[in-house]
Design a protein that fits this description.
By secondary structure, the protein is mostly helical. Among the domains are: about 1-15 and about 50-180, no CATH class; about 325-423, Serine Threonine Protein Phosphatase 5, Tetratricopeptide repeat. About 70% of the residues lie in helices and about 0% in strands. It contains 21 helices and no strands. It has helices spanning about 1-15, 20-45, 50-65, 75-80, 105-115, 115-140, 140-160, 165-180, 185-190, 195-220, 230-240, 245-260, 265-280, 285-300, 305-320, 325-340, 340-355, 360-370, 375-395, 400-410, 410-420.
Protein backbone atom coordinates (compact mmCIF):
# COMPACT_ATOMS: atom_id res chain seq x y z
CA UNK A 1 0.00 0.00 0.00
CA UNK A 2 2.74 2.58 0.79
CA UNK A 3 4.32 1.92 -2.63
CA UNK A 4 1.00 2.55 -4.38
CA UNK A 5 0.54 5.79 -2.41
CA UNK A 6 4.08 6.80 -3.20
CA UNK A 7 3.55 6.20 -6.93
CA UNK A 8 0.25 8.10 -6.86
CA UNK A 9 1.82 11.08 -5.10
CA UNK A 10 4.80 11.04 -7.44
CA UNK A 11 2.58 10.88 -10.51
CA UNK A 12 0.51 13.82 -9.30
CA UNK A 13 3.64 15.83 -8.59
CA UNK A 14 5.00 15.10 -12.06
CA UNK A 15 1.71 15.56 -13.94
CA UNK A 16 2.16 18.70 -16.04
CA UNK A 17 -0.96 18.16 -18.18
CA UNK A 18 -4.00 20.42 -18.14
CA UNK A 19 -5.85 17.88 -16.01
CA UNK A 20 -3.07 17.82 -13.41
CA UNK A 21 -2.93 21.61 -13.36
CA UNK A 22 -6.68 21.85 -12.81
CA UNK A 23 -6.49 19.24 -10.04
CA UNK A 24 -3.84 21.22 -8.19
CA UNK A 25 -5.73 24.50 -8.63
CA UNK A 26 -8.97 22.85 -7.50
CA UNK A 27 -7.30 21.47 -4.39
CA UNK A 28 -5.91 24.89 -3.54
CA UNK A 29 -9.35 26.48 -3.99
CA UNK A 30 -10.99 23.88 -1.74
CA UNK A 31 -8.38 24.54 0.95
CA UNK A 32 -8.89 28.30 0.62
CA UNK A 33 -12.69 27.94 0.87
CA UNK A 34 -12.38 25.78 3.97
CA UNK A 35 -10.05 28.31 5.57
CA UNK A 36 -12.41 31.17 4.69
CA UNK A 37 -15.32 29.25 6.22
CA UNK A 38 -13.42 28.70 9.47
CA UNK A 39 -12.48 32.39 9.65
CA UNK A 40 -16.06 33.48 8.91
CA UNK A 41 -17.39 31.20 11.63
CA UNK A 42 -14.82 32.61 14.07
CA UNK A 43 -15.79 36.19 13.25
CA UNK A 44 -19.47 35.51 13.98
CA UNK A 45 -18.65 34.70 17.60
CA UNK A 46 -19.20 37.39 20.21
CA UNK A 47 -15.57 37.78 21.24
CA UNK A 48 -14.28 41.14 22.57
CA UNK A 49 -10.69 39.98 21.91
CA UNK A 50 -11.36 39.18 18.25
CA UNK A 51 -8.87 41.69 16.90
CA UNK A 52 -6.36 41.55 19.77
CA UNK A 53 -3.85 39.55 17.76
CA UNK A 54 -3.82 42.13 14.95
CA UNK A 55 -3.13 44.83 17.54
CA UNK A 56 -0.25 42.72 18.89
CA UNK A 57 1.11 42.49 15.34
CA UNK A 58 0.87 46.26 15.04
CA UNK A 59 2.76 46.61 18.33
CA UNK A 60 5.44 44.21 17.05
CA UNK A 61 5.87 46.37 13.95
CA UNK A 62 6.24 49.38 16.25
CA UNK A 63 9.02 47.57 18.12
CA UNK A 64 10.73 46.73 14.82
CA UNK A 65 10.39 50.34 13.68
CA UNK A 66 11.95 51.58 16.92
CA UNK A 67 15.13 49.56 16.33
CA UNK A 68 15.17 48.75 12.59
CA UNK A 69 18.83 47.77 12.28
CA UNK A 70 19.48 45.47 15.25
CA UNK A 71 16.01 44.94 16.73
CA UNK A 72 15.29 44.92 20.43
CA UNK A 73 17.57 41.89 20.95
CA UNK A 74 17.12 38.11 20.92
CA UNK A 75 14.53 37.10 23.50
CA UNK A 76 13.91 40.71 24.51
CA UNK A 77 10.51 41.19 22.91
CA UNK A 78 8.71 40.78 26.24
CA UNK A 79 10.69 43.70 27.67
CA UNK A 80 10.09 45.87 24.60
CA UNK A 81 6.38 44.99 24.58
CA UNK A 82 5.87 46.74 27.93
CA UNK A 83 6.26 50.07 26.15
CA UNK A 84 3.77 49.34 23.35
CA UNK A 85 0.88 47.78 25.27
CA UNK A 86 -2.65 48.73 24.30
CA UNK A 87 -5.78 49.14 26.38
CA UNK A 88 -7.87 46.15 27.43
CA UNK A 89 -11.30 46.40 25.73
CA UNK A 90 -13.04 44.55 28.59
CA UNK A 91 -13.40 45.29 32.28
CA UNK A 92 -12.78 48.31 34.50
CA UNK A 93 -8.98 48.22 34.19
CA UNK A 94 -7.29 49.60 31.12
CA UNK A 95 -3.88 47.95 31.39
CA UNK A 96 -4.46 44.61 33.10
CA UNK A 97 -3.75 42.47 30.04
CA UNK A 98 -0.28 42.30 28.57
CA UNK A 99 1.54 40.27 25.92
CA UNK A 100 5.07 38.94 25.83
CA UNK A 101 5.35 37.47 22.31
CA UNK A 102 4.54 38.90 18.85
CA UNK A 103 2.21 35.96 18.05
CA UNK A 104 3.99 35.66 14.71
CA UNK A 105 7.46 34.29 14.02
CA UNK A 106 7.46 36.28 10.79
CA UNK A 107 7.31 39.47 12.90
CA UNK A 108 9.65 38.16 15.59
CA UNK A 109 12.53 38.30 13.10
CA UNK A 110 12.49 42.08 12.47
CA UNK A 111 11.36 42.88 16.02
CA UNK A 112 14.13 40.98 17.82
CA UNK A 113 16.91 40.77 15.20
CA UNK A 114 16.30 43.79 12.98
CA UNK A 115 15.04 44.25 9.45
CA UNK A 116 18.34 43.31 7.71
CA UNK A 117 18.48 39.99 9.59
CA UNK A 118 14.84 39.29 8.71
CA UNK A 119 15.51 39.99 5.04
CA UNK A 120 18.60 37.76 5.12
CA UNK A 121 16.57 34.88 6.59
CA UNK A 122 13.87 35.29 3.95
CA UNK A 123 16.49 35.42 1.18
CA UNK A 124 18.04 32.20 2.53
CA UNK A 125 14.71 30.42 2.48
CA UNK A 126 13.79 31.76 -0.95
CA UNK A 127 17.19 30.81 -2.40
CA UNK A 128 16.85 27.22 -1.26
CA UNK A 129 13.23 26.81 -2.29
CA UNK A 130 13.77 26.06 -6.03
CA UNK A 131 16.31 23.33 -5.26
CA UNK A 132 14.00 21.89 -2.60
CA UNK A 133 11.15 21.76 -5.10
CA UNK A 134 13.36 20.02 -7.67
CA UNK A 135 14.42 17.43 -5.12
CA UNK A 136 10.83 16.90 -4.04
CA UNK A 137 9.85 16.26 -7.68
CA UNK A 138 12.91 14.22 -8.67
CA UNK A 139 13.67 12.46 -5.37
CA UNK A 140 12.00 9.55 -3.65
CA UNK A 141 8.51 10.93 -4.09
CA UNK A 142 6.50 10.79 -0.90
CA UNK A 143 9.34 11.43 1.58
CA UNK A 144 10.62 14.58 -0.11
CA UNK A 145 7.16 15.90 -0.91
CA UNK A 146 5.98 15.22 2.64
CA UNK A 147 8.99 17.08 4.10
CA UNK A 148 8.25 20.08 1.90
CA UNK A 149 4.55 19.98 2.80
CA UNK A 150 5.41 19.80 6.51
CA UNK A 151 7.70 22.79 6.19
CA UNK A 152 5.01 24.73 4.33
CA UNK A 153 2.50 23.94 7.08
CA UNK A 154 4.92 25.11 9.80
CA UNK A 155 5.73 28.26 7.82
CA UNK A 156 2.06 29.17 7.39
CA UNK A 157 1.31 28.54 11.07
CA UNK A 158 4.42 30.51 12.03
CA UNK A 159 3.05 33.64 10.41
CA UNK A 160 0.27 33.79 13.03
CA UNK A 161 1.79 31.92 15.97
CA UNK A 162 4.97 31.65 18.06
CA UNK A 163 6.25 28.26 16.91
CA UNK A 164 9.85 29.12 17.80
CA UNK A 165 8.90 29.14 21.48
CA UNK A 166 8.22 25.38 21.23
CA UNK A 167 11.50 23.43 21.04
CA UNK A 168 9.90 20.28 19.61
CA UNK A 169 8.56 22.21 16.61
CA UNK A 170 11.91 23.95 16.08
CA UNK A 171 13.68 20.58 16.01
CA UNK A 172 11.01 19.20 13.67
CA UNK A 173 11.49 22.14 11.31
CA UNK A 174 15.26 21.60 11.30
CA UNK A 175 14.84 17.90 10.57
CA UNK A 176 12.54 18.67 7.65
CA UNK A 177 14.64 21.55 6.35
CA UNK A 178 18.06 19.87 6.49
CA UNK A 179 17.64 17.16 3.80
CA UNK A 180 15.90 19.54 1.42
CA UNK A 181 18.40 22.42 1.76
CA UNK A 182 21.59 20.40 2.27
CA UNK A 183 24.33 20.36 -0.33
CA UNK A 184 25.32 17.17 -2.11
CA UNK A 185 28.98 17.26 -1.02
CA UNK A 186 29.83 15.02 1.91
CA UNK A 187 30.96 16.82 5.03
CA UNK A 188 34.02 14.62 5.35
CA UNK A 189 35.32 15.76 1.97
CA UNK A 190 35.30 19.40 3.07
CA UNK A 191 36.33 19.15 6.74
CA UNK A 192 39.21 17.07 8.08
CA UNK A 193 38.71 14.86 11.12
CA UNK A 194 40.36 17.35 13.48
CA UNK A 195 38.06 20.16 12.39
CA UNK A 196 35.03 17.94 12.82
CA UNK A 197 36.10 16.98 16.33
CA UNK A 198 36.68 20.63 17.23
CA UNK A 199 33.25 21.55 15.86
CA UNK A 200 31.66 18.72 17.83
CA UNK A 201 33.40 19.90 21.01
CA UNK A 202 32.15 23.45 20.46
CA UNK A 203 28.61 22.18 19.93
CA UNK A 204 28.85 20.09 23.12
CA UNK A 205 30.03 23.09 25.15
CA UNK A 206 27.28 25.25 23.67
CA UNK A 207 24.70 22.60 24.52
CA UNK A 208 25.86 22.29 28.14
CA UNK A 209 26.16 26.04 28.72
CA UNK A 210 23.16 27.16 26.72
CA UNK A 211 20.65 24.37 27.29
CA UNK A 212 21.56 21.81 29.95
CA UNK A 213 22.79 24.22 32.66
CA UNK A 214 19.77 26.58 32.36
CA UNK A 215 17.46 23.56 32.51
CA UNK A 216 19.17 22.33 35.68
CA UNK A 217 18.76 25.79 37.21
CA UNK A 218 15.08 25.81 36.31
CA UNK A 219 14.65 22.28 37.63
CA UNK A 220 16.25 23.24 40.93
CA UNK A 221 13.64 25.95 41.55
CA UNK A 222 10.65 24.35 39.82
CA UNK A 223 7.59 24.20 42.04
CA UNK A 224 9.16 26.19 44.89
CA UNK A 225 7.32 29.43 45.80
CA UNK A 226 9.40 32.47 45.01
CA UNK A 227 9.30 33.74 48.59
CA UNK A 228 10.29 30.37 50.09
CA UNK A 229 13.32 29.26 48.07
CA UNK A 230 15.96 27.70 50.37
CA UNK A 231 19.26 29.55 50.30
CA UNK A 232 21.26 26.48 49.23
CA UNK A 233 18.98 25.69 46.29
CA UNK A 234 18.95 29.30 45.14
CA UNK A 235 22.75 29.45 45.26
CA UNK A 236 22.97 26.20 43.29
CA UNK A 237 20.55 27.48 40.65
CA UNK A 238 22.51 30.72 40.38
CA UNK A 239 25.72 28.75 39.88
CA UNK A 240 24.07 26.73 37.08
CA UNK A 241 22.73 29.80 35.27
CA UNK A 242 24.57 32.99 36.29
CA UNK A 243 23.61 34.72 33.03
CA UNK A 244 19.88 34.82 33.84
CA UNK A 245 18.89 38.11 35.48
CA UNK A 246 16.00 36.56 37.37
CA UNK A 247 18.40 34.38 39.37
CA UNK A 248 20.21 37.47 40.62
CA UNK A 249 16.91 39.22 41.33
CA UNK A 250 15.74 36.24 43.39
CA UNK A 251 18.93 36.39 45.44
CA UNK A 252 18.46 40.13 46.02
CA UNK A 253 14.85 39.54 47.08
CA UNK A 254 15.94 36.85 49.53
CA UNK A 255 18.52 39.17 51.09
CA UNK A 256 15.88 41.90 51.44
CA UNK A 257 13.48 39.44 53.13
CA UNK A 258 16.21 38.43 55.56
CA UNK A 259 16.72 42.10 56.40
CA UNK A 260 19.28 44.71 55.33
CA UNK A 261 20.60 45.30 58.84
CA UNK A 262 24.27 45.62 57.97
CA UNK A 263 26.18 47.44 55.22
CA UNK A 264 27.47 44.08 53.98
CA UNK A 265 23.95 42.70 53.51
CA UNK A 266 22.94 45.89 51.69
CA UNK A 267 26.01 45.73 49.44
CA UNK A 268 25.30 42.09 48.52
CA UNK A 269 21.62 42.75 47.76
CA UNK A 270 22.41 45.85 45.76
CA UNK A 271 25.12 44.04 43.80
CA UNK A 272 22.77 41.20 42.86
CA UNK A 273 20.03 43.62 41.81
CA UNK A 274 22.47 45.72 39.78
CA UNK A 275 23.69 42.57 38.03
CA UNK A 276 20.10 41.72 37.07
CA UNK A 277 19.63 45.22 35.63
CA UNK A 278 22.92 45.00 33.75
CA UNK A 279 21.92 41.66 32.20
CA UNK A 280 18.50 42.97 31.10
CA UNK A 281 18.50 46.79 31.19
CA UNK A 282 15.24 47.20 29.31
CA UNK A 283 13.05 45.10 31.61
CA UNK A 284 11.07 47.03 34.21
CA UNK A 285 10.90 44.32 36.87
CA UNK A 286 14.67 44.23 37.36
CA UNK A 287 14.86 47.99 37.76
CA UNK A 288 11.94 47.79 40.18
CA UNK A 289 13.83 45.09 42.09
CA UNK A 290 16.82 47.42 42.43
CA UNK A 291 14.47 50.18 43.61
CA UNK A 292 13.07 47.83 46.28
CA UNK A 293 16.57 47.14 47.58
CA UNK A 294 17.21 50.87 47.95
CA UNK A 295 13.76 51.40 49.49
CA UNK A 296 14.41 48.64 52.06
CA UNK A 297 17.78 50.18 52.89
CA UNK A 298 16.16 53.60 53.25
CA UNK A 299 13.63 52.21 55.73
CA UNK A 300 16.09 50.24 57.86
CA UNK A 301 19.74 51.11 57.34
CA UNK A 302 20.29 54.45 55.57
CA UNK A 303 17.27 56.73 56.13
CA UNK A 304 18.92 59.63 54.34
CA UNK A 305 18.21 61.80 51.34
CA UNK A 306 20.74 60.05 49.11
CA UNK A 307 19.20 56.59 49.53
CA UNK A 308 15.70 57.99 49.04
CA UNK A 309 16.82 59.73 45.84
CA UNK A 310 18.42 56.54 44.50
CA UNK A 311 15.27 54.52 45.16
CA UNK A 312 13.11 57.18 43.50
CA UNK A 313 15.44 57.29 40.49
CA UNK A 314 15.26 53.50 40.07
CA UNK A 315 11.47 53.57 40.34
CA UNK A 316 11.40 56.27 37.67
CA UNK A 317 13.61 54.12 35.43
CA UNK A 318 11.28 51.15 35.92
CA UNK A 319 8.27 53.31 35.01
CA UNK A 320 10.10 54.51 31.90
CA UNK A 321 10.54 50.86 30.82
CA UNK A 322 6.84 50.08 31.45
CA UNK A 323 4.99 53.41 31.20
CA UNK A 324 1.55 51.77 31.20
CA UNK A 325 1.98 49.76 34.39
CA UNK A 326 0.11 51.60 37.14
CA UNK A 327 1.32 49.16 39.80
CA UNK A 328 4.87 50.53 39.52
CA UNK A 329 3.63 54.08 40.01
CA UNK A 330 1.56 52.93 42.97
CA UNK A 331 4.55 51.21 44.54
CA UNK A 332 6.66 54.32 43.98
CA UNK A 333 4.00 56.52 45.58
CA UNK A 334 3.79 54.23 48.63
CA UNK A 335 7.56 54.34 49.10
CA UNK A 336 7.72 58.12 48.74
CA UNK A 337 5.03 58.53 51.37
CA UNK A 338 6.95 56.28 53.75
CA UNK A 339 10.06 58.40 53.04
CA UNK A 340 8.17 61.60 54.02
CA UNK A 341 8.08 62.99 50.48
CA UNK A 342 4.34 63.62 50.27
CA UNK A 343 4.48 65.92 47.24
CA UNK A 344 6.34 63.39 45.07
CA UNK A 345 4.11 60.62 46.40
CA UNK A 346 1.02 62.57 45.37
CA UNK A 347 2.37 63.04 41.86
CA UNK A 348 3.03 59.32 41.48
CA UNK A 349 -0.41 58.41 42.85
CA UNK A 350 -2.11 60.84 40.47
CA UNK A 351 -0.18 59.34 37.56
CA UNK A 352 -1.34 55.85 38.58
CA UNK A 353 -4.95 57.06 38.82
CA UNK A 354 -4.68 58.67 35.39
CA UNK A 355 -3.69 55.29 33.94
CA UNK A 356 -6.45 53.43 35.80
CA UNK A 357 -9.36 55.85 36.44
CA UNK A 358 -11.57 53.10 37.89
CA UNK A 359 -8.97 51.73 40.29
CA UNK A 360 -9.51 51.61 44.06
CA UNK A 361 -6.04 51.55 45.59
CA UNK A 362 -4.61 54.64 43.85
CA UNK A 363 -7.45 56.68 45.35
CA UNK A 364 -6.53 55.55 48.86
CA UNK A 365 -2.83 56.27 48.34
CA UNK A 366 -3.68 59.66 46.86
CA UNK A 367 -5.88 60.45 49.87
CA UNK A 368 -2.98 59.58 52.17
CA UNK A 369 -0.66 61.84 50.18
CA UNK A 370 -3.09 64.76 50.34
CA UNK A 371 -3.42 64.42 54.12
CA UNK A 372 0.35 64.00 54.55
CA UNK A 373 1.12 67.28 52.78
CA UNK A 374 -1.62 69.11 54.69
CA UNK A 375 -4.08 69.32 51.81
CA UNK A 376 -7.84 69.77 52.10
CA UNK A 377 -9.44 66.93 54.11
CA UNK A 378 -12.59 67.19 51.98
CA UNK A 379 -10.64 66.10 48.89
CA UNK A 380 -9.17 63.14 50.76
CA UNK A 381 -12.61 62.19 52.12
CA UNK A 382 -14.09 62.29 48.62
CA UNK A 383 -11.34 59.96 47.34
CA UNK A 384 -11.97 57.52 50.21
CA UNK A 385 -15.71 57.49 49.46
CA UNK A 386 -15.02 56.90 45.74
CA UNK A 387 -12.64 54.06 46.59
CA UNK A 388 -15.19 52.37 48.86
CA UNK A 389 -17.92 52.67 46.23
CA UNK A 390 -15.74 51.15 43.51
CA UNK A 391 -14.50 48.38 45.81
CA UNK A 392 -18.13 47.42 46.49
CA UNK A 393 -19.00 47.67 42.77
CA UNK A 394 -16.20 45.34 41.68
CA UNK A 395 -16.30 43.03 44.68
CA UNK A 396 -17.86 40.15 42.73
CA UNK A 397 -15.66 40.65 39.66
CA UNK A 398 -13.10 37.87 39.06
CA UNK A 399 -9.61 39.14 39.88
CA UNK A 400 -7.36 36.57 38.32
CA UNK A 401 -4.19 38.64 38.08
CA UNK A 402 -2.12 40.25 40.87
CA UNK A 403 -2.56 43.54 39.01
CA UNK A 404 -6.37 43.33 39.27
CA UNK A 405 -6.24 42.33 42.94
CA UNK A 406 -3.96 45.27 43.70
CA UNK A 407 -6.01 47.81 41.79
CA UNK A 408 -9.59 46.78 42.60
CA UNK A 409 -9.45 45.84 46.27
CA UNK A 410 -9.20 47.99 49.40
CA UNK A 411 -7.18 47.00 52.44
CA UNK A 412 -9.49 47.30 55.49
CA UNK A 413 -6.59 48.44 57.66
CA UNK A 414 -5.74 51.22 55.22
CA UNK A 415 -9.39 52.30 55.16
CA UNK A 416 -9.55 52.40 58.97
CA UNK A 417 -6.34 54.42 59.17
CA UNK A 418 -7.65 56.93 56.64
CA UNK A 419 -10.99 57.31 58.39
CA UNK A 420 -9.18 57.94 61.68
CA UNK A 421 -6.97 60.55 60.03
CA UNK A 422 -9.95 62.40 58.55
CA UNK A 423 -11.43 65.14 60.76
Amino acid sequence: MPEHLDRLTDSLARDTSRRGFLARVGGALVAALLAAGVVASRLREDDPYRWTRTRIWSAALTVAGGAPWLGCGPGQFSAAAAGVRFQDPVGPLRWERSFSTPHSDLLRLPAEFGIPAALAALVFLAAGLPAALRRARAGDGLAQASALAGLAALAVQGTVDDLTTRPALVVLGALLLGPLWAGRDAVGERFPAGARLALLACLAVAFVAGDLAPWLAWRTLAGVPRAAVPAAELARALAWNPAHPDMHLRMAERLVREGLHTPDAYARARGEAETAVRLSPGEARYRAGLARVEAAACRSLFPDEGTRARAAAHYAAAVACAPRDASLLLEEATFLLSAQDAAAGERAARAALALEPEAVRPRLVLARAILARGGPPAAAAALVAEAEARAARYDGLPKDSPYARLMLTADPRELRALRQALP
